[in-house]
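Can you please make up a protein's amino acid sequence together with its fold in C-alpha cell form to help me picture the idea?
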Amino acid sequence: MRRRAALSLLLGLPACASVVPFNEVVLAPVLRGERTAVLMRFVVTGEDGRDLPPFENAMGDDGLGLAIGDFDSAGVPTRRIIAARFPSEAAQAAGAVILFLPPGYHYLAMQGARRTDAFSYEAGFRAAPRWRVAVPAQVPLLYAGSFRLRARPIRLLFGDVVIGQVDQDATVVEDEAAWARTLAERDLPRLGPPLTRLAVRHAGPVLLGTPRS
C-alpha cells in the first residue's frame, strides 16, 4: 500500500479515502439536524480465509467499491462513494466508514475494486443486491451494522492484494453494537451513543418517507 501511495504522490493522483478530524465544520450538518452520521463496518475475507482490508489503499479504485441511491434515484445506487471519511486511523483499519446522509431510506451496493472501464463498473452497482439503510430524523449517529463479505483476492504488480469479485450471496450484516459504542466514545464523542438500525437486504418497492426512530 505504501508503494502505491508513493506512486500516486509522484503522479499527482488524488487520494480518495481520507482520515479527517470530525470538527465542528464537518459535523455542522449533523449538529443542525440536517444529516445523520451513519456508521458502517466492512469486513472482507478472501477465498483463502485471509482478511482483505477494504479501505487500506489511498487510491479509491483499489478499495472496496460502494455506491448509494435513494428515492430520487428509484432506489438505484447511482452515486459512487469515492470520498469515504474515517474518523481515525484505527477506524479505517477496522473497516469502519462514516457517511453523512439525510433522513430517509438509502440503498447501498458493494463490489470489488475497479478493474474495468468506468461504465461497466457503474453498471455493476446497478446489478448488485441492494441493502436498505433506514435513517430516522434527528438522530446524530446511526450504526447500520457490520457487513461481512467474501471475495476473490487479486494480486497487483507490486505484490499488493486488492478485493476482487464479491460473493454477493454470502454477504451478511451482523450486530456489533458494543463495538460501535466503543468507536463512538473514542472518535465521535460529540454525537453521543449510536442508535442501532441494521441494514437489510432490499426487496420489493422503494420505500417513501422517513423511518421512525
Notes: The mean pLDDT is 87. DSSP finds five helices and 13 strands in the chain.
